[in-house]
Every structure is written in structure tokens, then in C-alpha cells.
Design a protein that fits this description.
The protein has a single domain, classed as Response regulator (Rossmann fold), CATH 3.40.50.2300. It has 5 helices and 7 strands, in the order βαβαβββαβαβα. The chain has helices spanning about 15-25, 35-45, 65-75, 90-95, 110-120; strands at about 5-10, 30-35, 50-55, 55-60, 60, 80-85, 100-105. Strands 2-1-3-6-7 form a 5-stranded parallel beta sheet, sandwiched between helices. Strands 4-5 form a two-stranded antiparallel sheet. α1 (about 15-25) links the parallel β1 and β2.
């Protein structure tokens, strides 16, 4: 089975560490991680991704922009926005514009595992490890 392409865009160290720990449970995802807005823009224009996990704010860019670019390249992409509580309204706007869901960090990061399990089941990619 082909690996599914996942792009993870985040620059906060504790969030990166926690999300990378969660992603270890999903061996069928080929993960690309970026913490630079310009590199993320370029990659999203070059390559379609199945799943994009992005912070709502990254120095020099917005998760809304990354969501838009990901969905332009792959209309079936699942975009998950990571946000702090004070940005929840903006994250909700991202969902209205096509993102699958948003997670308030840090307390909500564990929800990411459940969202990814749901995505893998819906897309026929049953996780190898629970």
C-alpha cells in the first residue's frame, strides 16, 4: 500500500515533539516537517499532500493560507489546524473554508490521534497500531 503524504508545519518545540510522538503510531504516513513559512509555501505549490497539520500562525504566514494551498493542490486533502485558545475563532474560520478540524494546543493535542484514526479509517488506511 502506498504511503500517504503528511505535511506537518509547526515551529513550537513542545508541539513538534508531542505531534511527532503521535505520528509514530501511523507508520503509513510519510511525514515531512517544516518550520519555515516560505519553504511550506513552495512545497505546497509543488506537491499534493493527503494530510496537512499546520499551526494557525507561523512566522510570515497563516495556517489559512496553507490550508487554501493544500486544498488547491488536492481537493481531498485533510487539513488540521493547531491553534492556541485565543485564535480559536480564526481556526473555526479555517474549518468553514475547508479544513477538516482544529485542535487547541496544548490540551487538545491528544485529539489529534483520534482525528488521524478517523481519517485513516475513512480513507481505507487502517492504522497498523492502536
Amino acid at each position: 500500500m502506498d504511503k500517504k503524504q503528511l505535511l506537518f508545519i509547526e515551529d513550537e518545540g513542545y508541539v513538534v515533539a508531542r505531534v511527532e510522538e503521535i505520528l509514530k503510531d501511523f507508520p503509513r504516513f510519510e511525514v515531512t516537517r517544516l518550520d519555515d513559512a516560505e519553504a511550506a509555501r513552495e512545497l505546497l505549490e509543488e506537491k499534493p499532500f493527503d494530510i496537512v497539520i499546520t499551526d494557525i500562525y507561523l512566522r510570515g504566514a497563516s495556517g489559512l493560507e496553507f490550508s487554501f494551498k493544500a486544498l488547491q493542490k488536492n481537493k481531498d486533502a485533510c487539513v488540521i489546524i493547531l491553534t492556541s485558545l485565543d485564535n480559536a475563532d480564526l481556526a473555526a474560520k479555517a474549518v468553514k473554508e475547508g479544513a477538516l478540524d482544529f485542535i487547541v494546543k496544548p490540551p487538545g493535542l491528544e485529539r489529534l490521534r483520534n482525528i488521524l484514526k478517523m481519517v485513516t479509517l475513512v480513507r481505507g488506511l487502517a492504522a497498523e497500531k492502536d
